[in-house]
């Protein structure tokens, strides 16, 4: 005797489209790393497991809106520019960030990822330029550094140190030398805006002839800490 098929709840049959929690998507100038100055679409994901002392995006820790990844990509493409930067918060704290990065690359965009370096970067699409922080003692989050990421860095990537003072500078200088980081990728030294003057940091780099790139955040010079700029 034939039995009718058991009904399956529609919410099980219809799996939702992959989504991410987004704080903001906006067009601006890239303010740092090797694409500084280029028109760039920023996709800022919500949430971060770190609490760095100098964080300038605390508004991205909470809130946000769930967005389908296809819709995010469509909005990025609608701006009509080549460069897109996925940032946070800590974007890799949302696992589907990897899918977003892949789809942005598939769309023909020049994609960069800004990440704290506390999470595994191994699954990131190799077409993405990874801008990885190495947290200094002054950040309050040095213990979160995932040093296993260092051997994964390539010439497409950049490693960034935000420095809060002379102690941070000496720590970062020693890390560069010990791990020969400058031979693996571009190394960026930035002054923490409220704790170290750009001139002090520049003078130290020159005196020590460090093989690193000094940078200041262009967007901070133009728009201070205004969200969405």
TrEMBL record:
Which range is the signal sequence, renumbered to this chain? none
Q: Where is the Radical SAM core domain?
A: 35-229
Q: Gene3D superfamilies, per this entry?
A: Aldolase class I (3.20.20.70)
| This protein's record includes keyword rRNA processing | no
S-adenosyl-L-methionine as a keyword of this entry, yes or no, is: yes
The residues the record assigns to binding S-adenosyl-L-methionine are 54-56, 89
> Which residues of the sequence carry a binding annotation for substrate?
29-31, 44, 87
SUPFAM superfamilies tied to this protein: Radical SAM enzymes (SSF102114)
Cofactor comment text:
Binds 1 S-adenosyl-L-methionine per subunit. Binds 1 [4Fe-4S] cluster. The cluster is coordinated with 3 cysteines and an exchangeable S-adenosyl-L-methionine.
Q: What is its EC number?
A: 4.3.99.3
Highest taxon of the lineage: Bacteria
Instruction: Give the GO terms filed under biological process for this record.
Output: tRNA queuosine(34) biosynthetic process
* Residues reported to bind [4Fe-4S] cluster: 48, 52, 55
Q: Where does Mg(2+) bind?
A: 57
As one GO molecular function, the record gives: carbon-nitrogen lyase activity
Keywords, A to Z, come to:
4Fe-4S, Iron, Iron-sulfur, Lyase, Magnesium, Metal-binding, Queuosine biosynthesis, S-adenosyl-L-methionine
Q: Which InterPro entries match?
A: 7-CO-7-deazaguanine_synth-like (IPR024924), Aldolase_TIM (IPR013785), rSAM (IPR007197), rSAM_QueE_gams (IPR027621), rSAM_sf (IPR058240)
Q: In which pathway does it act?
A: Purine metabolism; 7-cyano-7-deazaguanine biosynthesis
Q: How does it assemble?
A: Homodimer.
Q: Which family is it part of? A: Belongs to the radical SAM superfamily. 7-carboxy-7-deazaguanine synthase family.
The role this protein plays is: Catalyzes the complex heterocyclic radical-mediated conversion of 6-carboxy-5,6,7,8-tetrahydropterin (CPH4) to 7-carboxy-7-deazaguanine (CDG), a step common to the biosynthetic pathways of all 7-deazapurine-containing compounds.
Supply the PANTHER family for this chain: 7-CARBOXY-7-DEAZAGUANINE SYNTHASE (PTHR42836:SF1)
**Name of this chain's protein:** 7-carboxy-7-deazaguanine synthase
């Amino acid at each position: 005797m034939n039995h009718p098929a058991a009904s399956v709840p529609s919410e099980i049959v219809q799996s939702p489209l992959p989504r991410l929690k987004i704080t903001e998507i906006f067009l601006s100038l890239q303010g740092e790393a090797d694409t500084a100055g280029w028109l760039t679409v920023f996709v800022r994901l919500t949430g971060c497991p770190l609490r760095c002392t100098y964080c300038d995006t605390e508004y991205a820790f909470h809130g946000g809106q769930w967005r389908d990844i296809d819709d995010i990509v469509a909005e990025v493409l609608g701006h009509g520019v080549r460069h897109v930067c996925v940032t946070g918060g800590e974007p890799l704290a949302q696992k589907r960030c990897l899918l977003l990065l892949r789809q942005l690359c598939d769309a023909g965009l020049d994609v960069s990822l800004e990440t704290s370096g506390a999470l595994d970067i191994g699954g990131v699409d190799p077409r993405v330029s990874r801008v990885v922080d190495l947290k200094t003692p002054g950040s309050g989050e040095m213990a979160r550094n995932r040093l296993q990421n260092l051997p994964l860095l390539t010439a497409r990537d950049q490693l960034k140190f935000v420095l809060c003072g002379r102690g941070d500078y000496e720590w970062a200088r020693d890390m560069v030398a010990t791990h020969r980081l400058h031979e693996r990728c571009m190394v960026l030294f930035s002054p923490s805006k409220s704790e170290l003057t750009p001139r002090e940091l520049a003078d130290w780099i020159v005196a020590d002839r460090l093989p690193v790139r000094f940078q200041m955040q262009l967007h901070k010079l133009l728009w201070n800490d205004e969200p969405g700029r």
